[in-house]
Each structure stands twice: as structure tokens, then as C-alpha cells.
UniProtKB/TrEMBL annotation:
One of its GO terms (biological process) is negative regulation of DNA-templated transcription. Keywords: Cytoplasm, DNA-binding, Iron, Metal-binding, Repressor, Transcription, Transcription regulation, Zinc. Signal peptide: none annotated. SUPFAM superfamilies: Winged helix' DNA-binding domain (SSF46785). This is Ferric uptake regulation protein.
Amino acid sequence: MEMTADQRASDWLAKGDLRPTRQRIALARLLVGDGQDRHVTAESLFALTGGEGEKVSLATVYNTLRAFCDAGLMNEIVVDGSRSYFDTRIDDHPHFYWEDRGALTDAPADQIEIARLPLAPDGTEISRVDVVIRLRKTR
């Protein structure tokens, strides 16, 4: 029996122990409803809500994406000081950032090697390493 988008969304929220409000379910359905991984900005997710007929403000989208990250359901990938992407795939993996089109995609993890990381300062630990490889067209 095929899982519906609403079932996927509800199950995903339950993994993060998040209450399934109408707005969370609507956004979760857009993010994971078809079972595919997504890289979205708050603005691109907000634009998708209009196409689905959902009434969700941009501020709610930002707050909900932050709640999804805090619950461990997504990772935020910062590509520069003013642009963040939110990734539904939460395992460690590198990304390509396509500068010409402002898109973030997964890069092949088996083709990258990190030989050594610096020691974390006293009283801290490394929680995650983000690898973003910026691409542009050759001239």
C-alpha cells in the first residue's frame, strides 16, 4: 500500500516529536510528501504554498523551517551570509552550489575526502562539517 503525502508528512513530524498543526502538515507535505529529498529556501517554499492553496505567511515558513531544523528533521546549509537552504536529507553529505542559478544540489559523497579536521577548542565539539562546492560556468 502506497503511503500518502499526508501520511509521510505526519510520520516525518512525529519523528521530530512535533505537534502536527495544519501549517506544519502543509509545509511537511511539500517537503517530504512525495518521498524525495528537497533543498529549499524559505522563499521558494513560501512560493510553493501559494500553488497548493495554503495560507501560510513567510514568517511562519521561516519559523517552521527553524523548528524542523531544531527537531533534527532538516539541516540548514548557509551558502553565504544572506542565503540559507534547508535540506531534508540529514545524513552527512557535500553539496554543489550553482552560482548562475542559485541552486543547491547534493554532490557525490564518495568522491570527496577530508583527511583531517582541526581540533575543536576546549569545551566544544564538532557537531557537523558542511562542504559546499561553489560552481560557475567556464568562460
